[in-house]
Design goal:
The structure is a homotetramer. The first copy, chain A, is mainly alpha-helical. Chain A has a single domain, classed as Glycerol uptake facilitator protein (Up-down Bundle). In chain A, helix 1 packs antiparallel against helix 2. The longest helix of chain A is centred in the N-terminal third of the chain and has 29 residues. Chain A is globular. The N and C termini of chain A lie close together (9 Å). The relative contact order of chain A is 0.17. The C terminus of chain A is likely disordered. Chains in contact: A-B, A-D, B-C, C-D. At the A-B interface, helix 2, helix 5 and helix 6 of A face helix 1, helix 2 and helix 4 of B.
Amino acid sequence: MVDLLRRLAAEALGTGTLVATVVGSGIMAETLTNDVALALLANTIATGAILVVLISTLGPISGAHFNPAVSLVFALRRELPARDAGLYALMQVVGSIAGAIAAHAMFELPLLQSSTHVRTGGAQWISESVAAFGLVAVILAGIRFERKAVPMLVGLYITAAYWFTSSTSFANPAVAIARSFTDTFSGIRPVDLPGFIGAQVAGAVIALALMTWLLRVPTGSDLPINPENRT
Amino acid sequence: MVDLLRRLAAEALGTGTLVATVVGSGIMAETLTNDVALALLANTIATGAILVVLISTLGPISGAHFNPAVSLVFALRRELPARDAGLYALMQVVGSIAGAIAAHAMFELPLLQSSTHVRTGGAQWISESVAAFGLVAVILAGIRFERKAVPMLVGLYITAAYWFTSSTSFANPAVAIARSFTDTFSGIRPVDLPGFIGAQVAGAVIALALMTWLLRVPTGSDLPINPENRT
Amino acid sequence: MVDLLRRLAAEALGTGTLVATVVGSGIMAETLTNDVALALLANTIATGAILVVLISTLGPISGAHFNPAVSLVFALRRELPARDAGLYALMQVVGSIAGAIAAHAMFELPLLQSSTHVRTGGAQWISESVAAFGLVAVILAGIRFERKAVPMLVGLYITAAYWFTSSTSFANPAVAIARSFTDTFSGIRPVDLPGFIGAQVAGAVIALALMTWLLRVPTGSDLPINPENRT
Amino acid sequence: MVDLLRRLAAEALGTGTLVATVVGSGIMAETLTNDVALALLANTIATGAILVVLISTLGPISGAHFNPAVSLVFALRRELPARDAGLYALMQVVGSIAGAIAAHAMFELPLLQSSTHVRTGGAQWISESVAAFGLVAVILAGIRFERKAVPMLVGLYITAAYWFTSSTSFANPAVAIARSFTDTFSGIRPVDLPGFIGAQVAGAVIALALMTWLLRVPTGSDLPINPENRT
């Protein structure tokens, strides 16, 4: 296993780049068009693409969680020590705020902002639970059946989830926190964070429970077993 | 083989997620833009992406049919017992209706709706036959030549078929039934279902016949034989 | 090798499906939007996607040329007998005209049409030469280095070429002929065919010459040699 | 290794095709729509697609740098002799200018132009540094972990970077120079070149330093080592 310092650097770099992409592409899109669907489509394509790239290139170093809810799931599966999971989450938050600031720097905007974008209510919370449920389910099944496909599967999953949820699928507490620091297309009011984060964690834990059952190897099964299915 | 209960759960979960994506992304798109082509493009990209994800992650469990016409084809090929095919179809319908309801919940719409979207006539029925023909042909050839590519091939096929058919390629009786329960972008009037479903089944059976001939291993052929071409 | 009858059926089916996609998605797009760039984008995505599908599923049967210029190149490389190449071209033309008719049927339009879409002049001919040059270069290099990637490479190449040529990259004499039979988005006047086809053949032959030099294995080279680089 | 003449031809052909795609798709897009976001999306998709194609087909010949900043990085890593790197850069510039001229020829525009598109200022320079940093990081990590994925990773990275940077991510001195020769969508004023090129080289060198640390094999590590990770 790679030493902790480098793993934490990879988590910060990856989550930061992810947020810079989400925030930056949102700024670029809303600057160039008045059609919100087109802006969201550009935002979607940029986010899906960078996820494939980041998970492929940093996954072999840190596992490429980039998401405290995902690190929590691996800690609950006892595949990551609780202390490491906590440090992962910390670096994900630090990295993702740096990513938002970097996006602002690249677009000549005030570096520190506070979002006024209202995102709250039951429908949005259901959306975030579904989004995080799906994300964790995809990761667990992907690791189980074909680890090499995980980057593409996560990128494609988020591409779809941007559109099938009313919240545009944050699905990530660290990214949500960072997005409260930008008053642009992809922002979220700080006061709306607890609802989002609670819903995300709930969805992730439910996915862990369901997938643990669904993916358990049945006795005498010929379900393919991925020889590399350990972290 | 995985036990039936888990296979049925995978079929319900997969078909439900597929319908939630089709319906949800349609709602999101028509909310954000007045350009119908742009709405269909977003709908297309979300659907194509989630198909790759669902077939990759649930395929090793249940085969990832998510479609009674596909289960019928595998039953006719004697690769799935008739009883299992019937249960698959049942769970696909149940799951897909749940998926439509979930989409409504995520967008704060009435959970149960009845579509008023007219989709009927010869051109639409030809479209659905062609769409289902192509879907089954892609699946059978994909399994025959390179099973690992099937998720991507199906996702890309549906991406194209959304645009080259006037019906936007439902190609799936379970999904069609579920879409009669939403009065949004992707809906279909209940009264239009029989025409669609009949056309889909016809297209699927024709594809089975043609591809059985086209893919038969010729004597002394060096056509590559996929060693895993059994379910 | 698969028997000739099935190979010819695969060429007709594949070229027909390709043309049905090009023509059908063009009709769908121009029906739904007034923005020509958006229409072309939908047309592009559908075409690129179906190319990956068709080459993956029919390639193991016939080689998936779907294009008389490509069959000519393989005949010149002596990897396809001249008689077979002629029959391939014939079936490609027959299949592609059937594909245009099928698209019209799916959209309830007159089955037989004659295009009035003007596509002529030096810039368009240069475009078609460049487009066919690139297509053949991609195919020959793809076969040489990694045959399994050819479907994706051709799909992505055409995706790009739709936009970097002023002609939207027909790059295919059979498809061009079929497109003269539709008076919709993707049509071409019959009188403009000779210029397009001449330019396409010229581009293809130049690519054959250049790539034969570029891909020749140097003495003592460690350039990877694809063990399956024979048809 | 392939002889130098062919490697230089591959670098010129690849960089030229890349620029023809960037410039040509920009011209096509701005001709067809008034929505700048839609134009940039078309530009993005064409560029991302052709990058995958070019790196896949020419990579085995020359390494598919197509970028003096990338050749510099490989020279600093002592994987390419300084003289070869200089010749690579020269041919990249020559090829890329030829690519811009080819795009103009395909769209019937004056072959030689001088851009008036202003691209300057700190935010743009930060953007170019970030863009080149990311490009080099992706290449180095991709080579380290899974060389075969590099074409797709670079294509997806640039797809995202077009949108998360205010400069639309040139990230390439040769391409920047060529783009000063077109007064269309993708152009850049000649006077703005030094700022862009300086920022790109800085970003590339910083990426080399950081990734050399991040990717170093730790003692006793089980970090996967790619057996082909030498050029």
